[in-house]
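U., I forgot to send this yesterday:
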Amino acid sequence: MGLLDIILGRRKPARPDLDQLFAVPSAAVTLGAGAGLTPTGRGSVCFASVEGGAFDRVRREVRDLLDADTATGGTPVEFSQDAYGYTWLLAEHAPDDLGGLVNDLHAVNTLLQDAGFGPQLLCSLTGFRTAPDERGEQRSVALVYLYKRGTFYPFAPLPGRAERRDNALELQTRALLADDLRLERDLARWFPVWGAPGL
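Result:
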């Protein structure tokens, strides 16, 4: 960071700290006690795809690593592409195995980063939901980890509503997790991830 950056008020961006993902299981305890949210057992990693043999090799390594869990009853990972051309990897575990899910998400991020594809990583998310209410509806929230910012934010789509957010639940989640996670302070960076695998 140079003198001109200091004068103009520019800040050095936070370095990604993938170990922040390991704080999610303890945050889940807070979410359960404070908002009745429990893990869904689903999580995903979003990254920009790159053409070429090196990226294909890393993608195969990721699949091989995570599909190894299928021998013990786990679900194979799924790759999908969204409307913007980003690739999503969906991992699933039993809802009570949030630690295993976080380990898988961390492993994917680490493999991509170590292979030189860190700039392609966008975010990781873990899904939570409430018990069904009297109408049978459940509220959902995802804890989204922004790779380039090293911060989390909650994303809560409204059930049955086209691209509308449950802002009250997002703000409640932020307040509950203030001591558990490094939260993104800039609300403009709480990007919606409509239809993300794992929600």
